[in-house]
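Ticket #4471: structure export looks truncated?
Reporter: QA, pipeline team
Priority: medium

Steps to reproduce: submit the single chain below to the structure queue and open the exported record.
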Amino acid sequence: MSEFAPESAPATLLALFKESIFSALTETFESVQGVYLDKGTSLFETLAGIDAATASIPVSARCASLAAQVEHTRYYVDVLEQFMRGTLTGEPDWAAAWQIVTVSEAEWTSSIASLQASYGRLRAYMHSLDRWEGRWEVGGAMAIVVHTAYHLGEIRQALCTLQK
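Actual output as written to the record:
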């Protein structure tokens, strides 16, 4: 016999999914919860230890600077929020986000603050959802975690080269 009655299973599975996705978002962006990262290695914790000079160095002739990685991540979060809301119009200009190379201290601080604001809006929107019915909500939420975790890994790997 099943542990859950059929009529309660969707609500229970939804609650489990929401708990899991918010835990993964928190770990990826804010602070380690013991899901998959080492202590002190979330995105915002990592960015707090990077100055504008370091953020402005391209990792190689073929790789972007950390400033570009952050701008791309912010842009992705904004686009995916629109995707989840069903308000995305036109094709995103992915190349534009990669054009940043160097940043001043003020620009770097502003870039991180913009990413934090985008993440905050996205998280608030996700908390406001009454229904999670498909790819708009579920797929978008999963994509943001996976994509941001990928770029967090890129940033942390680049730091190994840049901070010798």
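Status: closed, not a bug. The export was complete when the record was re-opened. Leaving a note from the reviewer for reference: Residues 135-162 form the longest helix (28 residues).
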